[in-house]
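[retry 2/3] Cation:proton antiporter: previous attempt timed out, resubmitting with same input.
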Amino acid sequence: MNHLPHLITDLALILGVAAVITLIFKRLQLPLILGYLVSGILISPNFKIFPPKVYEITDVQTWGEIGVIFLLFSLGLEFSFKKLAKMGGSATTAAGFEAIGMAVIGFGLGKLLHWSFMDCIFLGACLTISSSSVIVKSFADLGLKQRNFAQLVYGILVVEDLIAVVLLVLLGTFVASHSFDAGQISMSILKLGFFLIVWFVGGILFIPSLLKRAKNFLTDEILLIVAVAMCFLMVYLSSQAGFSAALGAFIMGSLLAETTKAERIEHLVIPVRDLFGAIFFVSVGMLIDLNVIKDHWLPILLITAAVIIGKSIVITLGAFISGNSLRTSIQTGMSLALIGEFSFIIASMGVKQKVVSQELYPIIITVSALTIFIAPSLTLSSTRIYNWIANKLSPKWEARLNRYSSEATALRAVSDWNHVLKFFLINTIVFSAIVIALIILNDSFVLPWLREVARGFGRATSAVLALLAMAPFLWALIVRNEKTEPFARIYTQQKYHGPIWIMRIIKVSLALLFIIGLLRSIYSLDFALMVGIALLVLLLIFRKRLQRTYDNIEDRFVKNLNNREIEEQRLLAEQAAEKKNQNLAPWDAHLTTFEVAPEAVNIIGKTLMELQWRERVGVNVAMIKRGATSIIPPDRDEKIYPFDKLFIICTDSQERRMNAILRPDKKIIESAREVEMKLDQLTIDADSPLIHKSIRESDIKNLAHGLVVGIERNGERHLNPESTWVFEEGDLLWIVGEKKLINTIAE
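[retry 2/3] Cation:proton antiporter: success.
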């Protein structure tokens, strides 16, 4: 008898139990994350009541790590660096208050409980980040997505994502050193900043262009494979650089978030993320020992209270200081009073590396479960809490708080000098990082390869190639921040000439230092110095060509960075043009021209009233063209004659019926664009002369030789309305009539 591998039976058990439990939790309208945790507890070796158990826990944890990768990758797809840049000071300040405040509260609470130093550090980190997935889902369920404070909550969650990434790096340093080393921490932050800049610039330059070139081949299957491949490639690069796999997944997700394929990739990744995410959360639940929870109920209650009360106060304070009203601040603070998946990841890192106590993990998970369960109630009660606080405030204090909020919001202006200084710092940091990355790439890969291939010419060849690659960025480092309007304005003021020349000396010195740094690893210091000075002179000589080269690189970067917005604007423009011009008609109706054949004896000589096309078919005759005469619009007593051209508003199905009525061999003679008529829309507002008038009373027929062919009211559409229809405010009319007169109807 053949036996299935334990991995397959384990997955069957995990997914089977998770399916049953989550169905129950869904029925009870409870968060699914709690269902996964309960599933893990039931099949855990620590739970003796439920007989089936997982055999290969190590394999399941590996699958769980893949789940973490997909969770962070999906989170990155929702992140976007541009979203972070647009958040402004309010969300950043509130998130910063939360990170610092909760880290201090967590560390202090750990000390109060007499925990070890590393346990206190990890506890503070675990309490720092709220759960994005739970909050977004909760807001959707509660119908709060469009509320004012919800936008601030989403902004804080975006900033929290970046803080979480930084925490993972810093905690990795703690794990490696087992102590607090300020120098090492500073180096880790600098290293993280360097790699973030390099990955962001390189990713935006190449990834959108690659996807754009391959767009004709990117079926859903291929796009999913390409996206996942990029994710795991960045995971590998991140681990090689000394960072966590989660960081690499998050970075690649955030890079793909800037492409036009972001929504499509996110849609394709969601099922994969949900599958592996479920395995991850179940594996988290498997590590929970109910005996540990029973023995540590007091720390669990204290930490839960610290999360709810601490986050509510700290985030409220940060949101208010950054210029939000007291109501919005309280609603925001109480909505974020929970911890979630990032806390699991942080706690599991400490346990796996054996730097924290085994009890920390189940304690954090239990606290997370409790806060997730309580969070929706806190959000709903935040307004009542505000009202209670507002009633307790004296009018004097209420006026002070409102005045502070208004004044803080009004602080917007930045001086030209501050703008130039800020631009100088950003310019220097970004281009220095790019140049350093090119030097590292040359020393680590290009130079060793060329030594093997070109032998005696390898060093010189690699130096030339590296300098050519660096040249546009060195030029940008020196001159780019001087190409702005604020710089031009302050340059006219004598008092700024000294600081400007100091900045120039710093930039030129950095450029020379980078050139020497590249050549020093290949040649002597004296030679590198002479070549460096000579190259700076060459930069000045070929400045126009370098400027063009850099402009091309920057244009490509900016286009790729804004590719989504450009594509969205293009689609909106096309839709607007299509809506305006598609057959010149609303909805699925269009203007079609028929010619009356002499053989159509069943209609020739009859009036429109006798034919009853509006009643029988639902169409309107907008115009009859008879030789050189155009009848706009025709009267109900107008007769039909041979060779008349009838301009009729109809749908596709109505067109087929009119074809059958008019003659056996029917074909459209002219398109709507050949007619000297206009079909346009008009909105009835409060001042419109047409309001409260019927179609017949409005006299549109004579005023513009027009005909009302469609009306939209409260989202409902009515094609070819009766003449007794009375116009109301907000009605959207579709009118066909003489081109020169139709625009005068609303005047």
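[retry 2/3] Cation:proton antiporter: Confidence is low (pLDDT under 50) at residues 410-414, 580-586, 664-675.
[retry 2/3] clearing retry counter.
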